[in-house]
Amino acid sequence: MRAPASDLPVFLDDVSLRAGATTILDRLTLTIAPGAPTLIVGPNGSGKTSLLRLCMGLEAPTSGRVSWGGRIDRAMARRAILFQRPVMLRRSAAANITYALAQAGCPRRQRAGRAEALLERVGLCGLAQRPARRLSGGEQQRLALARALARDPEILLLDEPTANLDPAATRSVEEIVLGAARSGIKIVMASHDLGQVRRLAGEVIFLVRGALCERGRAEEFFNHPKTPEAAAFLRGDLVI
User: Fold this and answer.
1) Do 124 and 139 contact (CB within 8 A), yes or no?
2) Which residues of the chain have pLDDT under 70?
3) Residue 123, by phi and psi: left (phi above 0), alpha (psi -120 to 50) or beta?
4) CATH architecture for segment(s) 10-87+156-235
């Protein structure tokens, strides 16, 4: 029997992304392997979202190569992505998840049970039949996480998923993310909130102007930054 395809590790080899004369990402070489959550930080416009899109396979690099588990095709075997403002389907919370399960190839007879388990996982069991677009912002983000988890991903890419949420909703989302990490899912998440990075990160990738400025264990990044840019960023200074 053939082993199921894996999307890990994700390897970026001298990858650049350009739009016309603008360099968005500049010659990145990175390996994203199983393990603790990886948090991507950097000033606005540093390329965080573009890096996530490349890792997902939603964009192709202008130069260099991205591979997933040794494969260079962009077929999404076991990866999922969540953006800041997920689009809710015009149906109930439960039906949003059963749709995601159908798209992931889950057999019809298993969908209702799996949807119920996913709703419980994100704390939305009591809202299963509520129209998804009538949920609060935090509830919608938790539902979007459940839809992403419906793909049974090995790697979950998150683009500032709590940027528009209040502290209570942020905490709920973070707990789900940490639970996913504990279950063995590789989390790669962009964040502008350094407190959140401290709470979640096992390692940090720090981008400046599309280039890799620093990478290392979260504790080392916060306590012993290796570059002037990282030190300035942690002080709250402008890094351009």
Assistant:
1) yes
2) 1-4
3) left
4) 3-Layer(aba) Sandwich (3.40)
